Amino acid sequence: MSGRRPGKAGLPVVLLHALPLDASMWEGTAQGLRARTHHVIAFDQHGFGGAPLTDRSPSLDLVADDLARELDRQGVDGVALAGCSMGGYVAMSFLRRHPDRVRALALLAARGTADTAEAAERRRLFADLVLDDATRGPVVARTTPSLLGATTRARQPRLVARVADLAQAARPQSVAWAQRAIAARADSMATLRAAGVPAVVVIGDEDELVSADEARETAAALPYGRLVTLPGIGHLAPLEAPEAVAEILADLLAHANSEEVTAC
Questions:
Q1: Strand, coil or helix: what is 195?
Q2: How far apart are CA 42 and CA 62, in angstroms?
Q3: Which of 33, 13, 8 is nearest to 244 (CA)?
Q4: pLDDT tens digit sequence for 181-234
Q5: For the chain, which terminus, N or C, has the lower number of CB atoms within 10 Å?
Q6: Which residue(s) pair with 82 in the sheet?
Q7: Model-level pTM greater than 0.70?
Q8: Distance from C-alpha of 137 to C-alpha of 127, rounded to nearest angstrom
């Protein structure tokens, strides 16, 4: 039974954060999973949280390979991957590069397709603006509200303020590197179609960045995938509805663990 650690229940789950946040965005969900005795690994990506920023050219493949090395360091083989937004794109890169290590997959607010040329150019422009002292503050302030759903913005002012503070505090070089890496990412639809593992795609019905149609397309590509839509939630479900996300991931882990037991 690969991927297990003594004293923990079943398959470890790796939580991959969104841009421009860090692994702390998963705190509520991680707490819920640990309360269910799951082994949780919350991973900071290049330049965020405690992770240094590489001087290599932007690529999510570098982040995926960093994760593989960290799992090696911890003595972990197979994992369930859960990625939100940028974290979802890292999860897909990891799945493409290290398919034998992925036992289950959760993609939150992430599309399986590559950016269009126009979308990629908008990301590169954002990277340029965030590196400019004169434009950074206004562009971050203008774009950050779209990370949360309208209901969250109306009902959770403290969360809105927290996300705004985290976005403004993120290192500009790290945000720019990440945006360029996301813009350069490969299309992952073929990778998803080849993924014979339990999978779930989660979308908030108030997500202003990834559409419901894109989420359906991503879920349909996964042979054992299902779509979960969260009402009143935007782009950052682990922050907006941490316990609901914990329930979804616990269910995914239950399916993955039962399959591992059957295979042993």
A1: coil
A2: 17
A3: 33
A4: 999 999 999 999 999 999 999 999 999 999 999 999 999 999 999 999 999 999
A5: C
A6: 15, 106
A7: yes
A8: 13
